[in-house]
Design brief:
Blueprint (H helix, E strand, L loop, with lengths): L9 E5 H14 L7 E2 L9 H9 L5 E3 L2 H9 L4 E7 L3 H10 L4 E6 L2 H14 L3 E6 L13 H12 L3 E8 L10 H24 L6 E4 L5 H7 L4 E2 L29 E12 L2 E4 L21 E6 L4 E5 L11 E4 L4 H5 L4 E6 L2 E7 L8
Parallel strand pairs: 1-15, 2-9, 3-4, 4-5, 5-6, 6-7, 7-8, 8-9
Antiparallel strand pairs: 1-10, 10-11, 10-14, 11-13, 12-13, 15-16
Helix pairs in contact: 3-4, 4-5, 6-7
């Protein structure tokens, strides 16, 4: 069907831009194969997209929740890292059951959690691949680099039903440092901490096969350090308004990935020449990283959102944005926006070509 006939609000994917983004990151990896791609599925929550990423060479995917991993495995994805801590007997039993169906990894930053994972794996007669998460500046999860991380790796290595898989090193807050040089410096510092921790663990006689992490805003810096073995970029497939504000080396905001994800909305009211109202508000897009932008109307700004309304202010009088017109909005933050929708509507050259269910929508446990 024509895009113009798609009812609103809807989450649409420009397939040409989306596929270009998939290829662009795959081609950015070093040609010697020393760095692999393990993209983050918390962005898209879709087995359809995960399979496309793996078809282009990704070794597997990441997710943040056991429920996300369950949805991905049901959709045919067989190599998953839960790049997060999993705590509590109910979640650990679910994780152990999933390990019978897929290659599964999980992160730790606490010795008590290591013991609980070992017990859950023993009960289910499975083996978990464990990565020790270190804090390199985000001040979220993660044990301190160096000796504390090495001790935790030793605890994993001593466990009967766990296999030490390496280090989880993700500097989330660095992804949105706007200045190019400051962003690179933050990752260089993270790389120094990760590299010295890896080397310390190896000197203890424990193999540290993988340092995994990195993101859309910094992956080229992680590559140039020579420390990271896997990249966990997620938002690169869609981009969003917030990532679009990052500066490149020339001080410009032109990103190497294209915006491919849009909220499709209808103008439902035009009270005067300066104001229009669309039928998409908080329930159609996240505003934690700012309101959506209007890529096709540079003289218009969406300046306020309510549950079902988005208010657009026009900088100068225009006949555009008439009642019934449908427009594209670039969400401020793609990940939580995706979690508000049931389907992706894949569009190419103005025609609907694909419908993909967002299978892990609401998978919060």
């Amino acid at each position: 069907m024509p895009l113009a006939e798609v009812d609103t609000p809807a989450l649409i994917v420009d397939l040409d831009a989306f596929e270009g983004n998939l290829r662009r990151l795959a081609q950015a990896l070093p040609k010697d194969g020393r760095v692999k791609l393990r993209p983050h599925a918390k962005t898209h929550k879709s087995p359809d997209i995960a399979r496309r990423q793996m078809a282009l060479g990704a070794v597997g995917v990441c997710c943040q929740k056991v429920a996300e991993a369950e949805a991905l495995v049901r959709g045919g994805v067989d190599d998953i890292l839960v790049s997060n801590q999993v705590v509590g007997p109910t979640k650990l039993r679910r994780l152990a059951a999933l390990a019978r169906e897929a290659r599964l990894g999980v992160c730790v930053d606490d010795a008590g959690n290591v013991a609980a994972l070992d017990a859950a794996a023993a009960e289910a007669a499975v083996t978990f691949r464990i990565l020790v998460e270190i804090d390199v500046g985000a001040k979220r999860c993660g044990v301190e680099p160096g000796e504390p991380a090495a001790r935790l790796a030793e605890a994993v290595a001593r466990s009967k039903h766990l296999r030490f898989g390496g280090l989880q090193v993700y500097h989330g807050s660095a992804q949105h440092i706007r200045d190019f040089t400051e962003r690179r410096t933050a990752i260089q510092r993270a790389g120094e901490m990760a590299g010295s921790t890896r080397d310390l663990i190896r000197r203890r006689g424990i193999e540290c096969p993988i340092v995994t992490g990195a993101g859309t805003g910094s992956f080229r810096f992680e590559i140039e350090t020579g420390v990271w073995d896997e990249l966990q970029c997620g938002s690169y497939i869609f981009m969003d308004a917030d990532y679009g504000r990052n500066l490149n080396a020339d001080g410009e905001t032109k990103a190497e990935f294209e915006h491919s994800l849009f909220v499709w909305a209808t103008v439902m009211s035009r009270p005067n020449e300066e104001r229009a109202v669309v039928d998409a508000g908080h329930k159609a897009y996240s505003i934690d990283s700012g309101l959506p932008t209007l890529p096709d109307f540079p003289d218009a700004t969406l300046d306020r959102a309510a549950d079902e309304h988005g208010r657009v202010i026009l900088k100068r009088p225009t006949n555009a944005l008439r009642i019934g017109d449908k427009i594209r909005l670039i969400p401020g933050h793609c990940d939580p926006t995706v979690n508000l929708h049931d389907w992706y509507v894949g569009v190419r050259k103005g025609k609907v070509e694909a419908l993909w269910p967002i299978a892990a929508r609401g998978a919060l446990t």
